[in-house]
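[Meeting: bench + compute handoff]

Bench side (C.D.) handed over the final construct sequence. Compute side (W.E.) agreed to return the predicted structure before the next meeting so the bench team could plan truncations. Sequence as handed over:
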Amino acid sequence: MRILLLLPWETDYMAYRDKFSTKLTYAPLTLVALAAMVPPELNAKIDICDEMVQSFSYDTPYDIVAISFVTSSAARAYKIAEKFRSKGSFVVFGGYHTTFMPDEAALHADSIIVGPAERAFPQFLRDYADKDPQPRLRSCCCLRTKSRVEILIKMWKHSSLTRSKARYGWFCLSEHAIL
């Protein structure tokens, strides 16, 4: 199974962020947190792309493209999803925009995750592997502290995938990750 974890950026917002806030920004941990949540028994090859600092190719064949986005990047996320779906990839959305506008997001993806990803994202991946992905997963609960610590340890292992490419340093994990 090959998975792309993607954080899209709208071009206008990228120009604003580069111009005015390069000293006050950080690399989001969303993608490495999601990579850490991939169940090991799936033996997945994971690619991570934060469009603010790197690019991706539509030519790489992905089984799953997981896109986490905010409202300012929704139009870009929808365009990316359309292109990957036309190439046969299964697209799953999550993030703040998907959580607050699930009906709109569902029009552009094969599956959506609403709420925190700690429980829903691994469940989605297992369902997909079992050929039974649900169109909508809702999660309202966060994991216990012990599980969060396990995710942090896994995140550190995955961070080498993006740490060398990030321009903006790191910050602490928030209360919970939203896909």
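W.E. noted at the follow-up: Residues 160-179 have pLDDT under 50 and may be disordered. C.D. will use this when planning the next construct.
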